[in-house]
Amino acid sequence: MFDAIVLEKDSGGATQAAISHLDTKRLPPGNVTVRVEFSTINYKDALAITGKAPVVRKFPMVPGIDFAGVVEHSDDERFRPGDAVILNGWGVGETHWGGLSQRVRVNGDWLVPLPAGMSARQAMSIGTAGYTAMLCVNALERHGLRPDSGDVLVTGANGGVGTIAIALLAQRGYTVTASTGRLAESTYLTALGAARVIDRATLSQAGKPLQKECWAGAVDCVGSHTLANVCASMKYRGLVAACGLAQGIDFPASVAPFILRGVTLLGIDSVYAPRAERVEAWERLAKELPVSVLAANTTEISLAQACAAAADLISGKIRGRLVVNVGG
Ligand code: NDP
């Protein structure tokens, strides 16, 4: 038996979330069973738990798009009982029972080894947000960005992706500008490694198709007008990694930056990223992300506190990362 958060739809169509005590026989099909140690509350999980957006379409569902734990049973020759593993994405917590649970059963193809020197708690403190930040930095560098290329902009700077992106870029020697709506957090952003902090209002309204050339690279967590303005203010041959939609899913831009300045827009998807890129990202996170960044950024809660925390996250009351000790 194990405990998990289970989402059900009531007769009025509203999502109900509660902890249930379940038999392992109810776990979905898969060739690896994992005893989960830590999961997190990502924005997507909060949407699923509160029912604020149709993240989950199949009920009952166990939410939790990521987890770290220890293999308990495996029919996959790559994993043995006792192996420490991480999972991000693959529809887990959306279409397949997820990580806000003491046990999960998944496809071994979805698992990556926990890197040496990283704890399960640290992995979930990084979470899908930090792993996505690493995918952004890897994509920019794969396309040629180097610290001497010029300044790099990070939008949505105080968010989960933004904070880790700043820390990773600064650690590698980039000069980072952080764009935020929370200028009161400038000291925190500077401590993470930002050389400069700008007000996100300078980027959030409709702007000219081509603007002053400022950035050699950018990590954009925001989308909409912000992403359009970021593209318009890239240097010649600048590189933009687009991963988020905090301002909006729209992209009200022109092709001018692409056809006149050779700007490249790189799409970042963490959910179905190939396994080799995941393993590379997690290995780099273990080597390059200072642990002090995580300590300052993380609040630990229990499975019993997760539903209330999801509502707080949606109301904008949470700063940094929420790590869930599922007590498996
Ligand atoms: P958070 O909610 O932690 O942070 C988002 C940040 O965006 C906020 O902290 C805020 O930063 C900024 N922001 C919020 N609302 C607005 C707005 N209206 N206009 C401009 N900026 C705004 O989210 P994450 O960092 O975890 O994720 C960032 C984005 O990336 C999200 O949209 C998320 O859905 C997406 N995502 C995508 C993934 C992928 O696979 N592509 C994986 C993970 C996340 P500040 O306070 O500094 O202004």
TrEMBL record:
PANTHER family: ACRYLYL-COA REDUCTASE ACUI-RELATED (PTHR43677:SF1), SHORT-CHAIN DEHYDROGENASE/REDUCTASE (PTHR43677). This is Acrylyl-CoA reductase AcuI. It is an enzyme of class 1 (oxidoreductase). Keywords: Oxidoreductase. InterPro entries: Acrylyl-CoA_reductase_AcuI (IPR014188), ADH-like_C (IPR013149), ADH-like_N (IPR013154), ER (IPR020843), GroES-like_sf (IPR011032), NAD(P)-bd_dom_sf (IPR036291), Zn-ADH-like_protein (IPR051397). Pfam families: ADH_N, ADH_zinc_N. GO terms for molecular function: acryloyl-CoA reductase (NADPH) activity. Residues 12-324 form the Enoyl reductase (ER) domain. Its EC number is 1.3.1.84.
